[in-house]
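As a warm-up, study this chain.
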Amino acid sequence: MDLAKTAEFAADLGNVERVEVLPFHQMGRYKWKNLGMEYELQDVEPPSPEAVERVCAQFRQSGLKVY
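Now compare it with the structure written out below.
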């Protein structure tokens, strides 16, 4: 995914008031276990705070408010 193009697209729409960046997390992992289902994202690591800030910065560079 080209995040810079996504940010530019969202900014060009003219009706996007803000962007909320919600990083991936593992908090719901136990739900899958309780359901007896395989959790296929077990080995996926959440992004570092620095990686999340880089994403936020790309949206800000396009003139969007980021929360």
